[in-house]
C-alpha cells in the first residue's frame, strides 16, 4: 500500500492541504465495496427485469391473478379481467403497455424513498461509495438544488402509494377465486399474492414520511396518545425499512413472475381447494 | 525572551468542568469579562464521567424530603467533619441550581406527573438524585456548555464578537497563579498582602506561553486521582488547582481524606479502576463474595445500625416500600462499602480477578437493566465482554474523589489568605467532610461554582486598582515550564528521567502505601519515596519540541502530583484515627477529639523552588486548626443519641 | 491468553507533511487501541501526540481512524483484530491536522455556535417545568451525544468537499437542531425562530443525502439519520414543500 510520502494528486477533500498527508483515498482493510456492489447488482437486476415486463404488454393476466405491475389496468387495451381491476380511464388512445401508466407511482415512491436514496447514492453514484472512502466527485451539492431537491416530494408518492397498495389488496382478495371466477378457492398464486401484499403494506407503512405524518411531526406526544401509539408501531416497522424495501421489491417481482409463468403456460397454478 | 502575549480579563476560571463553567456563567452574568481555561477540549471535562445524578431535595418522588434532611445526610456521610456552613448552603441551594438547568435546556428523566425524577443513592434518606439514565454528568456538562454558547450568542448580537465577554481557552494549561507585590490601597491590603494578578498559561497545541491578567482567579480543576494507580479519574486529574493554590500561598484542608469508590471495574487490566455507578446498587444490585454471600450485612457499623436492614428480606422489601423498611447495607456510604470489599478480598473470598461480585442480572429483567443502566451495560459489553443482564460484574475499590482541597470561605468560596483567589468543586475542601455522598458532587459543583463566580466577579468589580503582573514572576514561570527541555544539560551529568516512568512509580507508591488502608510505617516509606521522586522529577526530560508534546505536559504535571501526594501522605500520617475516607489500621477507631480538628497543608518554604532537589527536606508543613462549632439550630436537627457518637461532650453543651 | 507483539502503523507529522511509521509493540489481554498508543508513548516515542481523556467511551476525545474507519481508540478492543494484522492508526481525515493523531476540531465548535440555543418558555418559572417522559425521549436520545465528532468526520459532505464546510453544519449539529425542535418546551417558534425552516436554509440540511455513515460510526448508537435527520427533513418539507400543510397552517387548523 502506498503511503503519504509522494504529494497527493488532487488537493481537495481528504487530500486537502491542511489535512494529514495520507496518500490513499482510504485505508479500509475490510470488504467495504461488497455492500454497494450487491446493492447496485440487486437494483440493476430489478430494473432490467421490470423494464422488460413493463414494456412486454403480455402475459400479465391469468385468471384470477393480475400482475402487480399491471394493476390497476387503466387503458382500453388491457386484457379483460372480471371484477377488475381494469378501468378504462385512459380510453383507446393509449397504445403502449398499460403498466407504464401505473408503475410511475410505485417507481416514484421507491425512487424518493429515504432508504433507496441511500442505496443508489452509494451503489450507483458512489456518493460516497462507503463510509470514509473518498468519493470520486469534484463537486457536491446533495439535495439542495434541482433535480435532487425534488426528493422532498416523497410524501406525495407516499399518499399515492396507499391507494396502489389498496388496489393490490383488492387483487389479493380476487385471488381467492378460481379460473372460473368462483369464490372460496385458493392456489399457490394466492399465497404468493398474500405474502406480497403483506410486504407491500409493511414497506409502505414503514416509510419515513408515514412515520412523520402519523406522529413524528408532533411536539407533544402526551397530548395525542393514539397517534403516539401509532407512531411507535410505525417506528418499529421503520427500523426494518431496508429489509422491507428489499423483500417487498423481490416479492413484487416474484408475484409478477408467477403470473407470467402461469399466463404464458409455462407453469400450472397448483390449486389447493 | 520575546514578549509574551498578555490579555486582560476580569475573572479567569481555571477548569471547564461543572464548577468552572457554572462559575464562568455566574461571573459573566454579573457583568465580568470572563475567561475559562481548560486542559481538554471544551465539554470533555471529567464531569462527563459522573453517572448517578445530582442530589437536591426537591421532594419530587418522596415529599418528605427537604434541605434539612439533605443536610443531615451530608453531615452523617462526612462523619461530622464537614464545614457545616457549606453543607447547609449546599443543601439549601441545590434544588434551585437543578431547576435552573432546565431553563437552560437540560432534559432530566421525568416522574409520572412530569417533574424531575429522583433516584435512591447511598447515604441519602430519600430518593434525591435528579438524573438522566446513568449519564447525568454528560447532561450537566452539555447544558452548561450550551448555556455558555448562548451567552456568547448574546454577545455576538451585541458586540459582533462571540468572545467579547466570555471566552474559552481550550487545551491550555495554567502552571502558575501570578500575584502582585501587595496593594498600596489600605482597604485591599487588609486582606493580606499580595493579591492575585493573573495566570501563566501555555497552549498545549503550540506550546506557546501567554499570560491572562485578572484580579480574580477561580480554581475549578477537580481532583488528584491520577496520583494513584487504580483510579476512576481521567488524565486531567493531576491536582493542578491544589498545587497552584499551595504555590500561591493558600493552604489545603484535610488532604488525608481520599474517597475510594467501592465499585470500579477490576478486569481487564487496561480498564481497571473505571467506575461502575452506584446506581447499580441504588436500583437493586447486590454485592456477593465468592461464597455467594451478601457480605455487606456483616459490615454495618455501630453508628448506622438503626438505619439499615438487618436481613436480606427487609432489604429487598425496601425497594418497593421504603417507608416501612430499612435500606439494604449495599447502600451504606462509600467508605464503608469500599472497606468491606477490601476485607472480603483480603480474607480470600474475592472474585477471580481480585474483586467481589456485583449482581443485577438476578435482580431485574434484562430489559429493565438495559433501560436503566445503559452505559453500564455498554461499558461491560464493550470493554470486558461481560453481559451484565446475564452474569455478575467483578468490582473492587478505585480512587475516586478527594474530599480535601483548598481551604475556602464557606459563603464566598474565597481561598484562605490569598485575595482574589477562589475555588469551587472538587478542588475546594471542606464541604464533604471525611467522606462524600454519591450525588453530592454534582450539586456541589453547581452551588459553589455559582458562588465562586459571583464573588470573584464582585471582588474584581470592587477593586480600586488593577493588580500588576510582575515581569520577573512571568519570566520565572516561563523558565520553570521550559526546564524539561534542558534536562540533559543538568550540571551533575545525570541522565534525564523518563516522565512516564516517574509517573508510574508515583502511582504505584500512592496506591500501595497511602491507599485505602493506611499504616504508619508504610506512609513514612511513601514520604521517603516521594522525596526521591521529586528529586528525580526535576531531571525529567523530554524529546521533541513544544508543539502538542505529551511528554512535556506530563513533566509539568508531575510537579503538581508530587506536591499534592506529599500533602495526602503527611496529613494521613498525622491523623491518628479512622474516619470516612481515611482508614488507619493502627488507629481503627473514630476519635471524637479529632472531630473538630482540621489539618492544613502549606508550603514549608514558600520562597524556595517547589522542585527542591534535596529528597529529604519536606515541602509541606502541617497546621492543626479547630473548626467553628456547629450552629445550634443545625445540631438540633439530629437526635441526641446520634450526636454523642460524633461530638465531644463539650461541643454538645456549648 | 498471553501477550504478543503487534505491528502498528501510526501516522506522524503535522501540516507540513508526515508519514505512516511502523512500530512493533506489546499487546496484553483485554487491551484497547488507546492502551497500545500509550505504551508507544511511554516506551518508544514520548512525544507522540494523542488526544484522550476518560478512556471509558464517555468523553469522545480519542477519535481517530483505525484501519481506515473512524472510531474511538478507547473503545476499540485489540481482540477484534487478528494477531498477524497490521493496525493502522491515523488522525481524523476530515479536519486539519495539528500533530500526529491530533486534529483541529474547531470547525465543530464554530458550528455549535451557529445553532440558536434553547429558548425558555416565557412565563414558566424555574422549578415549574413539567414534561412527560414520552415527550423528552426523542431529544434525550440526541443528548446522549458525546461530541466525539466521528459523524462529522465520516460525513462525505465535508470530508470530501472542504468548500461545503461553510454551508453545512454536519450531522451532529443538525441533530442539535432536531433536538431543540423536538424539545417539548422550546419556545423558539413563539420568539419568531422557525427551526424547521432554518435547518434547511441556514444549516445546510439539504446537503445531507442520508447515506447513513454518521449513524454507522456513532459510538453511542444514536440513530442520527432515522431519528434526527430524516424527521428534520420531513419537518422542513412541512414548511417549505407541502402546500397542503402550508394551506392548513394559514387556515389555522394545525396544532402540533
Task: List the topology elements.
The complex is a heterotrimer of chains A (273), B (654) and C (256).
Chain A: H1 34-56, E1 61-62, E2 65-66, H2 99-111, H3 114-123, H4 154-174, H5 188-205, H6 208-216, H7 225-238, H8 241-263
Antiparallel strand pairs in A: 1-2
Chain B: E1 5-8, E2 11-14, H1 18-29, E3 34-38, E4 54-55, H2 67-77, H3 84-103, E5 118-119, E6 129-130, H4 136-159, E7 166-170, E8 172-179, H5 186-189, E9 196-203, E10 209-213, E11 216-219, H6 240-248, E12 252-253, E13 258-265, H7 279-282, E14 286-288, H8 312-320, H9 334-346, E15 356-359, H10 366-372, H11 374-384, E16 393-402, E17 405-406, E18 421-423, H12 440-462, H13 471-482, H14 499-513, H15 520-537, H16 550-574, E19 597-603, E20 620-626, H17 632-635, H18 640-646, H19 649-653
Parallel strand pairs in B: 1-10, 2-3, 2-11, 3-7, 11-18
Antiparallel strand pairs in B: 4-6, 5-6, 8-9, 9-10, 12-17, 12-19, 13-16, 14-15, 15-16, 19-20
Chain C: E1 4-14, E2 17-27, H1 33-43, E3 63-66, E4 69-72, E5 86-90, E6 97-99, E7 102-103, H2 106-114, H3 133-143, H4 150-154, H5 156-159, H6 171-182, H7 195-201, H8 213-217, H9 224-240, H10 243-251
Parallel strand pairs in C: 1-5
Antiparallel strand pairs in C: 1-2, 3-4, 3-5, 6-7
Amino acid at each position: 500500500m502506498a503511503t503519504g510520502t509522494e504529494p497527493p494528486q488532487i488537493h481537495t477533500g481528504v487530500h486537502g492541504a491542511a489535512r494529514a498527508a495520507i496518500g490513499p483515498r482510504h485505508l479500509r482493510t475490510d470488504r467495504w465495496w461488497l455492500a454497494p456492489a450487491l446493492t447496485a447488482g440487486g437494483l440493476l437486476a430489478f430494473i432490467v427485469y421490470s423494464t422488460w415486463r413493463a414494456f412486454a404488454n403480455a402475459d400479465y393476466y391469468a385468471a384470477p391473478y393480475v400482475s402487480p405491475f399491471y394493476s390497476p389496468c387503466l387503458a382500453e387495451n388491457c386484457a379483460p379481467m372480471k371484477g377488475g381491476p381494469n378501468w378504462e380511464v385512459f380510453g383507446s388512445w393509449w397504445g403502449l403497455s398499460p403498466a407504464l401508466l401505473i408503475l410511475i407511482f410505485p417507481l416514484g415512491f421507491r425512487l424518493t424513498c429515504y432508504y433507496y436514496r441511500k442505496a443508489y447514492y452509494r451503489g450507483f453514484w458512489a456518493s460516497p461509495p462507503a463510509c470514509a472512502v473518498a468519493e470520486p466527485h469534484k463537486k457536491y451539492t446533495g439535495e439542495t438544488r434541482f433535480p435532487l431537491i425534488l426528493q422532498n416530494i416523497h410524501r406525495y408518492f407516499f399518499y399515492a402509494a396507499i391507494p396502489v397498495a389498496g388496489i393490490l389488496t383488492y387483487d389479493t382478495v380476487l385471488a381467492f377465486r378460481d379460473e372460473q371466477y368462483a369464490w372460496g378457492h385458493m392456489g399457490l398464486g394466492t399465497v404468493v399474492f398474500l405474502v406480497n401484499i403483506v410486504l407491500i403494506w409493511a414497506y409502505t407503512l414503514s416509510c419515513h414520511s408515514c412515520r412523520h405524518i402519523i406522529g413524528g411531526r408532533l411536539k407533544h406526544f402526551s397530548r395525542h396518545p393514539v397517534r403516539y401509539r401509532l407512531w411507535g408501531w410505525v417506528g418499529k416497522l421503520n427500523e426494518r425499512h431496508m429489509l422491507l424495501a428489499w423483500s417487498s421489491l423481490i416479492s413484487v417481482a416474484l408475484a409478477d413472475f408467477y403470473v407470467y409463468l402461469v399466463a404464458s403456460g409455462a407453469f400450472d397454478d397448483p390449486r389447493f381447494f | 525572551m520575546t514578549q509574551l502575549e498578555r490579555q486582560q480579563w476580569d475573572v479567569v476560571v481555571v477548569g471547564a468542568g461543572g464548577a468552572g463553567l457554572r462559575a464562568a456563567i455566574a461571573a459573566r452574568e454579573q457583568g465580568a469579562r470572563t475567561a475559562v481555561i481548560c486542559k481538554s477540549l471544551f465539554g470533555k471535562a471529567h464531569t462527563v464521567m459522573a453517572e448517578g445524578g445530582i442530589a437536591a431535595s426537591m421532594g419530587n418522588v418522596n415529599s418528605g424530603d427537604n434541605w434539612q434532611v439533605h443536610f443531615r445526610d451530608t453531615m452523617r456521610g462526612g462523619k461530622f467533619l464537614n464545614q457545616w456552613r457549606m453543607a447547609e448552603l449546599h443543601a439549601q441551594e441545590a434544588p434551585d441550581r437543578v431547576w435552573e438547568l432546565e431553563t437552560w435546556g437540560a432534559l432530566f428523566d421525568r416522574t409520572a406527573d412530569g417533574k424531575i425524577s429522583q433516584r435512591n443513592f447511598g447515604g441519602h434518606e430519600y430518593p434525591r438524585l435528579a438524573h438522566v439514565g446513568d449519564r447525568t454528568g454528560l447532561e450537566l456538562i452539555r447544558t452548561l456548555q450550551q448555556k455558555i454558547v448562548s451567552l456568547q450568542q448574546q454577545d455576538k448580537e451585541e458586540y459582533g464578537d462571540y468572545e467579547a465577554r466570555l471566552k474559552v481557552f481550550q487545551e491550555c494549561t495554567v502552571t502558575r497563579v501570578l500575584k502582585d507585590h501587595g496593594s498600596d490601597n489600605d482597604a485591599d491590603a487588609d486582606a493580606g498582602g499580595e493579591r492575585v494578578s493573573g495566570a501563566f498559561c501555555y497552549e498545549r497545541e503550540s506550546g506557546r506561553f501567554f499570560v491572562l491578567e485578572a484580579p480574580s482567579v477561580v480554581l475549578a480543576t477537580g481532583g488528584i486521582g491520577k496520583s494513584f494507580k487504580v483510579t476512576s479519574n481521567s488524565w486531567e486529574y493531576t491536582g493542578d488547582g491544589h498545587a497552584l493554590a499551595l504555590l500561591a500561598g493558600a493552604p489545603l484542608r484535610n488532604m488525608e481524606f481520599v474517597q475510594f469508590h467501592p465499585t470500579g471495574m477490576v478486569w481487564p487490566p487496561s480498564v481497571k479502576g473505571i467506575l461502575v455507578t452506584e446506581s447499580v446498587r441504588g436500583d437493586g444490585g447486590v454485592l456477593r463474595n465468592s461464597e455467594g454471600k451478601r457480605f455487606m450485612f456483616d459490615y454495618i457499623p455501630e453508628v448506622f445500625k438503626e438505619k439499615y436492614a438487618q436481613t436480606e428480606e427487609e432489604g429487598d422489601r425496601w425497594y418497593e416500600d421504603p417507608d416501612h423498611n430499612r435500606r439494604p447495607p449495599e447502600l451504606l456510604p462509600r467508605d464503608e462499602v469500599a472497606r468491606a470489599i477490601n476485607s472480603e478480598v483480603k480474607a480470600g473470598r474475592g472474585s477471580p480477578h481480585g474483586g467481589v461480585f456485583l449482581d443485577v442480572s438476578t435482580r431485574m429483567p434484562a430489559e429493565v437493566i438495559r433501560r436503566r443502566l445503559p452505559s453500564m451495560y455498554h461499558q461491560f459489553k464493550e470493554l470486558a465482554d461481560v453481559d451484565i443482564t446475564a452474569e455478575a460484574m467483578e468490582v473492587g475499590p478505585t480512587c475516586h474523589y478527594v474530599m480535601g482541597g483548598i481551604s475556602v470561605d464557606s459563603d464566598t468560596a474565597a481561598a484562605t489568605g490569598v485575595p482574589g483567589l477562589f475555588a469551587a468543586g472538587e478542588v475546594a475542601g471542606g464541604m464533604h467532610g471525611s467522606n462524600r455522598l454519591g450525588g453530592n458532587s454534582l450539586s456541589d459543583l453547581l452551588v459553589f461554582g455559582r458562588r465562586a463566580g459571583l464573588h470573584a466577579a464582585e471582588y474584581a468589580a470592587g477593586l480600586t486598582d488593577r493588580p500588576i503582573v510582575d515581569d520577573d514572576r512571568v519570566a520565572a514561570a516561563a523558565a520553570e515550564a521550559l526546564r524539561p527541555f534542558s534536562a540533559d544539560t543538568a550540571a551533575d551529568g545525570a541522565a534525564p528521567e523518563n516522565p512516564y516512568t516517574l509517573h508510574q512509580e508515583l502511582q504505584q507508591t500512592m496506591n500501595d502505601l497511602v491507599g485505602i488502608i493506611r499504616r504508619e510505617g508504610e506512609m513514612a516509606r511513601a514520604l521517603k519515596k516521594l522525596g526521591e521522586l521529586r528529586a528525580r522529577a526535576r531531571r525529567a526530560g523530554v524529546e521533541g519540541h513544544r508543539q502538542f508534546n505529551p511528554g512535556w505536559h506530563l513533566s509539568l504535571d508531575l510537579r503538581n502530583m508530587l506536591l499534592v501526594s506529599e500533602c495526602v501522605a503527611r496529613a494521613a500520617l498525622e491523623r491518628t484515627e479512622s474516619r470516612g475516607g481515611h482508614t488507619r489500621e493502627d488507629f481503627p477507631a473514630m476519635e471524637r477529639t479529632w472531630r473538630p480538628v482540621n489539618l492544613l497543608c502549606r508550603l514549608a518554604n514558600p520562597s524556595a523552588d517547589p522542585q527542591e532537589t534535596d529528597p529529604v527536606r519536606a515541602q509541606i508543613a502541617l497546621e492543626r486548626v479547630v473548626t467553628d462549632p456547629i450552629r445550634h439550630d443545625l445540631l438540633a436537627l439530629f437526635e441526641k443519641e446520634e450526636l454523642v457518637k460524633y461530638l465531644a461532650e463539650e461541643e454538645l453543651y456549648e | 491468553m498471553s501477550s504478543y507483539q503487534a505491528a502498528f502503523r501510526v501516522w506522524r507529522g503535522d501540516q507540513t507533511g508526515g508519514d505512516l511509521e511502523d512500530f512493533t509493540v506489546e499487546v496484553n489481554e483485554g487491551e484497547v487501541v488507546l492502551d497500545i498508543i500509550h505504551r508507544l508513548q511511554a516506551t518508544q516515542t514520548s512525544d507522540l501526540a494523542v488526544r484522550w481523556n476518560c478512556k471509558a467511551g464517555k468523553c469522545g476525545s480519542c477519535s481517530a481512524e483505525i484501519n481506515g474507519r473512524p472510531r474511538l481508540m478507547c473503545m476499540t478492543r485489540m481482540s477484534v483484530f487478528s494477531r498477524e494484522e497490521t493496525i493502522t492508526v491515523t488522525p481524523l481525515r476530515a479536519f486539519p491536522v495539528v500533530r500526529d493523531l491530533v486534529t483541529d476540531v474547531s470547525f465543530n465548535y464554530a458550528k455549535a455556535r451557529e445553532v440558536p440555543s434553547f429558548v425558555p418558555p416565557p412565563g414558566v418559572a424555574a422549578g415549574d417545568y413539567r414534561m412527560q417522559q414520552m415527550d423528552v425521549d426523542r431529544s434525550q436520545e440526541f443528548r446522549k451525544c458525546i461530541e466525539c465528532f466521528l459523524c462529522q468526520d465520516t460525513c462525505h459532505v465535508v470530508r470530501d468537499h472542504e468548500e461545503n464546510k461553510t454551508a453545512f453544519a454536519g450531522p451532529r449539529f443538525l441533530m442539535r437542531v432536531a433536538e431543540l425542535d423536538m424539545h417539548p418546551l422550546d419556545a423558539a417558534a413563539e420568539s419568531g425562530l422557525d427551526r424547521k425552516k432554518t435547518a434547511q436554509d441556514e444549516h445546510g440540511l439539504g446537503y445531507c443525502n442520508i447515506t447513513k455513515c454518521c449513524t454507522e460510526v456513532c459510538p453511542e448508537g444514536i440513530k442520527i439519520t432515522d431519528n434526527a435527520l430524516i424527521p428534520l427533513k420531513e419537518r422542513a418539507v412541512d414548511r417549505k414543500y407541502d402546500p397542503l400543510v402550508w394551506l392548513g397552517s394559514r387556515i389555522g387548523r394545525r396544532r402540533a
